[in-house]
Amino acid sequence: MSVTHVDTTPPSPVIEITGLRKRYRSIRRPGTTALDGLDMVVHRGQIHGFLGPNGSGKTTTLRILLGLAAADHGRMRVFGRPVPQCLPELSDRIGAVVESPRFFGSFTARLTLSLLAGTIGLPDVRVEEVLTAVGLRDRADEPVKGYSLGMRQRLAVASALLKDPDLLILDEPTNGMDPAGIREMREMMRGLAADGMTLLVSSHLLSEVEQLCDTMTIVSRGRRVTHGRVADIVAAHTSDSVTVTLADAAEGARAAEVLRRAGLAISGRAERVEVSGAESPAAVTRLLSDKGIHLSGLTRQAADLETVFLRLTGTAPVDGRYPQIDHSLLPPAARSTPDERELTVTVSEGAES
Ligand SMILES: Nc1ncnc2c1ncn2[C@@H]1O[C@H](COP(=O)(O)OP(=O)(O)OP(=O)(O)O)[C@@H](O)[C@H]1O
Ligand SMILES: [Mg+2]
After folding, report:
1. How far, in Å, CA of 212 to CA of 331, rounded?
2. Would you say the CB of residue 325 lies under 6 angstroms from ligand 1?
3. 8 A C-beta contact, residue 126 and residue 162
4. Which residues contact 3 (CB under 8 A, 6 or more apart)?
5. Which of 17, 55, 70, 166 could serve as 93's disulfide partner, Cβ 3.0–4.6 Å?
6. Cα–Cα distance measured from residue 60 to residue 68, given in angstroms and rounded to the nearest whole number
7. Is residue 349 part of a domain?
8. What is the CATH number for 98?
9. In sequence order, what are the residues at sequence separation of 6 or more whose Cβ sits closer than 8 angstroms to the Cβ of residue 289?
10. What is the pLDDT of residue 352?
11. For ligand 1, what atom is nearest to the CA of residue 333?
C-alpha cells in the first residue's frame, strides 16, 4: 500500500519582520528612535499597504529590508531566508523603488532601461515588455528631463521590473502624481499582482490603500498598531451608531425620548437623532414603530480608513492625506543626506542634466 504524504505546512510568508528596532544616532543632538519593535508579515500574492504618518518609520523599514541601512535589533526573513545575510541570493527576486528616483536627464527612457538591462544580461525585448507594463512605451524615446514626476516614477518602477521580480517594494509610488497618474499606477500594480507578484507599497493616501491593497500594516512611531485585511480592519472599527431621520423636530423629540427610555445613548437634534448602543438598526426601527413613530430614514455610520487611522495613531490627516515633512526645514542632524534618502534602482545619482 502506498502512502501519499500531504504537506500541510503553510507556505512561509514572503516578508516576515519581528521586533525591528532602529535608532539614528547623532553626536550633537539626541538620537531618533525610528523603529521601536516593528512587526510585519506579508503573504504571497498580496498587495500589502504600509500606512503611517510622517516619520513613523516606513522608509527606514524598507531601507533596512533592502540592506540599505542596518537595524539595531530584530529579525527579518524574505522568502523564508534571513536578511540581510541572504540578500545577495535573493536580489533577482526583489525589485524596489525607495525614495525619489533620479536618472540621466538627456537619456531617453528606452536607452536608460536598455543600459540597465545590458548590465544584468537581459535582452532588449524585456525593455519593451516593462515599458508596456508601466504605460511608457509611447513616450519612451523622449529625454527623461522632460518627464513629469509621475512618468519618472513609472520609469523607476520599470527599472525595478526588468528582472521580473517575485516581490516589488515601492515607497510612496504615487507621491506627487495627479489623479489620472495615480489611477494608472494603481491599475498597473493590480495587473502585476494579478500575474502573481507580491507587492509591498507604502503610502500616505488612505483612500489609495483602501482601493488598492488586500492587507495592510498601520504603523505609528515605529510600532505596528494594527494589521490584517483592509476590509476587516475597517469593519471592526465601524461604529454601532445609526442616524434616524423623522418627519419633523417634534417627532424627533418623541423618538429621542422613546429610545432614551430603552437605554440607548442619544445625540443629535431636531428631526435627526443619532443613536448608539442598539443591537441592530432593525431594533431601533422596531422600538419606534411599536410607539407609532415612523422613520423617514435610517443610516448606519460606516467608519472609513481615515477614522480608523485617526483612532489608532492619534494623528489627523489633512484632506485624507498626511502631509510630507519638508526635510529641508529639519535641523541638519535630523536630515539624511541626499545619497541616503534617494537610493533607488537608477543609472545615475545626481547626474541629471
Ligand atoms: N538618515 C537619518 N538620520 C537621522 N534620522 C532619520 C534619518 N532618516 C529618518 N530619520 C528619522 O527617523 C524617523 C522615521 O523616518 P522615516 O523616513 O523612516 O519615516 P517615514 O514613515 O518614511 O516618513 P515619511 O512619511 O515622511 O516618508 C523620523 O523621525 C526621521 O526624522
Ligand atoms: Mg518615507
Report:
1. 35
2. yes
3. yes
4. none
5. 166
6. 9
7. no
8. 3.40.50.300
9. none
10. 36
11. 4
Q: Are residues 324 and 285 in the same domain?
A: no
Quick one: 211 and 129 in the same domain?
A: yes
List strands edge to edge, sheet with 81-83: 32-42, 15-24, 73-78, 81-83
Backbone angles phi, psi at 234, to 5 degrees: -65, -45
Residues 210 and 97 in one domain: yes
What CA–CA distance (Å, rounded) separates 183 from 177? 9
| pLDDT on residue 332 | 37
To test the pocket of ligand 1, the residue of 40, 58, 330 to mutate (highest count of ligand atoms within 8 Å of its CB) is 58
* Average pLDDT of the chain to the nearest whole number: 82
Q: Give domain status of residue 203, yes or no.
A: yes
What's the CA-to-centroid distance between 43 and ligand 2, angstroms? Answer: 22
**Ligand 1 contact, 315 CB (< 6 A):** no
- 173 CA to middle of ligand 1, Å? 17
C-alpha grid cell, residue 272:
435627526
Residues 227, 247, single domain; the answer is: no
Residues 292 and 332 in one domain: no
Count how many domains the chain has: 2
For ligand 1, atom 25: residue with the closest CA: 54
| 263/265 Cα distance (integer angstroms) | 7
Residue of the CA atom closest to atom 24 of ligand 1: 54
Pocket test for ligand 1, best of 203, 336, 337, 339 (most atoms within 8 A of CB): 336
pLDDT (0 to 100) of residue 204: 74
pLDDT on residue 9: 62
Q: Is residue 277 part of a domain?
A: yes
CA 137 to chain centre: 27
Q: What is the domain extent for residue 286?
A: 239-300
The pLDDT score that the predictor gives to residue 326 is 35
User: So what's the pLDDT on residue 320?
Assistant: 45
Beta strands 265-269; 272-276: pairing state:
antiparallel
CA of 317 to the centre of ligand 1 (A): 18
Q: Residue 239's pLDDT is what?
A: 65
Q: Is 334 in the pocket of ligand 1 (CB under 6 A)?
A: yes
Position 216 in a domain: yes
pLDDT below 50 — which residues of the chain?
316-353
Q: How many CB atoms lie within 10 A of CB 318?
A: 7
